[in-house]
UniProtKB/TrEMBL annotation:
This protein's record includes keyword Transmembrane helix: yes
ABC transporter domain mapped to chain residues: 360-612
Keyword Transmembrane (UniProt): yes
Listed name of the protein: ABC transporter ATP-binding protein
Matching CDD domains: ABCC_MRP_Like
Regions that span the bilayer: 78-99, 152-174, 180-200, 265-291
UniProt-listed Gene3D superfamilies: ABC transporter type 1, transmembrane domain, P-loop containing nucleotide triphosphate hydrolases
Length: 630
């Protein structure tokens, strides 16, 4: 992957793509700040026109000064031209200031527009995309550099335009003096262009090569500064180990950047030497024309000024072109991310999901997670293989099995987060792969195993999946999850910010967070007609036995009240007895199903798991009994 991208980072490939990238960036600029973009262009053209005006006035002044008349008369004759020169310089300065103001206003608008587009892109892709290492690399580069570089691309493109106008003005004056000066100016451009482009290409190739290294560094640093990891990091004295791991990746990055610095220094020296030689050639040619009498001394003086103006503008253009070239490489990454995301974004032209179902049918479903990049084989087999299942409406279905049996993967397929590699998940006869994904998920409530601790208020953590202005619905959801007792203890009730990293923030315990996450699911699923499916994936792992019993009672009451189908995943089989149907999975396959009593009578995997847990509970109870000989 890296080699392919590095091969694309050549002068000719980027020269072909640069007009498209610049056009895209300017289109973003037009959408983000049309007035500022127009002002930058207009005043940039004004600077070029003022430059040409100044050079013409300079030539006129020198002609008068070097005229064969007494000195006072020369000065008086030059006064009108001097006034014109002063006016031209004043106009050029004013245009430059106004163009700079417009440009400074435009760049943050472009960056914000790019950030909004980036956010829309990454939040619209399917969840499975984030299991792909290559996609994560694209996202990281877009997050770390792409959006800012879009602003740089717009700014430097406008700098190039302004500089080219100034060069055109100087070249026009030089062309009127003698045509041979024009190709000499072009010769002077080549070394600086080569130096800028080569340096940009080296920096971009290094960025590609170091993407994963920098991402690992960033993640390690986040682990060291994140409040959620602070306690365990110190409990297990992980600081030295994380620092050593960080240093390992940082050293790789440092050595690569040191090698880059050496190579870029050599390129700059070579470019500077060649550029100096080209400048000498220009002035030698001008001197020869003056000696031969081809141009008068006044015109030669004006030519010197024009050459200096052209060189200054040329330097600005070359620096800007190098920045355009480099920013274009990063923007190309952002564009490629959008293209990759488009491939992994659910279609928006699909019909809406059914409003409900009589049953959910899982038909011969197979699903595998993406293989890891590198030399390894990644996953050893499918997470689900040939799964057939029927979930009737209004029933509680428990999925049980050992770790890695496919329970959570099946839940992700049922919730519309993942799409099967083969087979179908249907609501009645409707294949869910053929309906609008967002509309489908709006009809499903999920109590996730790895629920997010959103840095919002307690109210915001619960109502995010449903209406925000329904206090009765909020109260029912909180009561069903027993989160009302959690909120009652918060310093500001429902308006308490649940993040101690901010002022007046509060951090609930693990069990309290789990109740709030459960309330979120109950709130979303409160309207059983609109949300006919509730999935609870290990919803009680942080709850004590009493709280767990209350939760499962509420879960079954919710199913009875709303008529929703409840899919329950839990390792605690004592709670599974309440389920109408128990489905047993092993190594991605359904190996048994039935009620608790039927499965216990048949024996098999379920009976084995039940007996193991029962034995563990009995041993725990015996260990807690007082010694009668005490």
């Amino acid at each position: 992957m890296f080699r392919e991208r590095a091969r694309q980072a050549t002068w000719w490939s980027m020269a072909r793509r640069m007009p498209v990238l610049v056009g895209r960036a300017l289109a973003v600029g037009r959408r983000a700040g049309p007035g500022d973009l127009a002002a930058t262009v207009v005043f940039g053209l004004g600077m070029g026109a003022a430059t040409a005006w100044a050079l013409v006035a300079t030539n006129a002044v020198l002609e008068e000064v070097f005229a064969a008349v007494p000195t006072p008369d020369r000065v008086r004759a030059a006064l009108p031209s001097l006034l014109l020169l002063a006016a031209a310089l004043l106009a050029r300065g004013a245009c430059g200031a106004l163009a700079g103001r417009a440009q400074a206003r435009l760049e943050p608008k472009v960056v914000l527009a790019a950030e909004r587009r980036f956010n829309e892109t990454v939040t619209g892709v399917e969840a499975a995309a984030f299991d792909d290492s290559a996609f994560n690399d694209h996202v990281f580069r877009g997050y770390a550099t792409g959006c800012d570089q879009m602003g740089v691309l717009v700014r430097t493109s406008l700098d190039v335009l302004t500089g080219l106008v100034a060069i055109a003005a100087a070249a026009g004056v030089l062309g009127t003096l003698h045509p041979v000066l024009l190709p000499l100016i072009l010769v002077a451009m080549v070394p600086q262009w080569w130096s800028s482009a080569a340096s940009a290409r080296l920096r971009y190739r290094l960025t590609l090569r170091l993407t994963e290294v920098v991402r690992r560094k960033f993640m390690l640093q986040q682990l060291m500064i994140d409040r959620r990891t602070a306690a365990e990091l110190r409990s297990y004295t992980m600081g030295p180990r994380l620092r050593a791991e960080f240093d390992r990746f940082a050293e790789r990055e440092l050595q690569a950047r040191l090698r880059l610095a050496t190579r870029m220094a050599l390129i700059r020296v070579a470019g500077g030497a060649l550029g100096g030689a080209a400048t000498v050639v220009v002035f030698v040619a001008l001197g020869a024309l003056l000696v031969e009498g081809v141009v008068p001394i006044a015109a030669a003086g004006a030519a010197v000024v024009a050459v200096r103006v052209a060189q200054g503008a040329l330097g600005t253009v070359l620096v800007s072109v190098g920045q355009v070239y480099e920013a274009g490489l990063y923007v190309a990454d952002l564009v490629e991310l959008e293209e990759k995301a488009r491939e992994r974004t659910p279609r928006r032209d699909l019909p809406p999901a059914p409003e409900g179902f009589a049953e959910i049918r899982v038909e011969d479903v197979t699903f595998s997670y993406p293989k890891a990049d590198g030399d390894g084989d990644g996953a050893t087999g499918p997470a689900l293989a040939g799964v057939d299942l029927v979930l009737p409406r209004g029933r509680t279905v428990a999925l049980v099995g050992e770790n890695g049996s496919g329970k959570s993967t099946l839940a992700k397929l049922l919730s519309g987060l993942y799409t099967p590699d083969a087979g179908r998940v249907c609501w009645d006869a409707t294949d869910l792969a053929g309906v609008d994904a967002d509309d489908l998920r709006s009809r499903i409530a999920v109590i996730a195993q790895d629920h997010t601790h959103w840095p919002m208020t307690a109210r915001g953590n619960v109502v995010m999946g449903g209406p925000e202005d329904d206090p009765e619905r909020l109260a029912r959801a909180a009561g069903a999850a027993h989160a009302d007792t959690v909120v009652a203890d918060l310093p500001r009730g429902w308006e308490t910010l649940l993040d101690k990293r901010f002022a007046h923030g509060h951090e609930p315990s693990g069990g309290q967070w789990q109740r709030l996450a459960a309330a979120r699911g109950f709130h979303r699923g409160d309207d059983g007609a609109a949300v006919p499916l509730l999935i609870a994936d290990e919803p009680t792992s942080a709850l004590d036995a009493r709280a767990e019993h209350r939760f499962f009672s509420s879960l079954h009451a919710h199913a009875g009240r709303t008529g929703a189908t409840v899919v329950l995943i839990t390792h605690r089989l004592a709670s599974v007895r309440m389920a109408d149907v128990v489905v047993v999975l092993e190594r991605g396959r359904v190996v048994d199903r039935g009620s608790h009593e039927e499965l216990m009578e048949r024996g098999g995997v379920y009976r084995e798991l039940w007996d193991l847990q029962a034995q563990a509970y009995r041993e725990r109870e015996r260990a807690q009994e007082p010694d009668p000989t005490g």
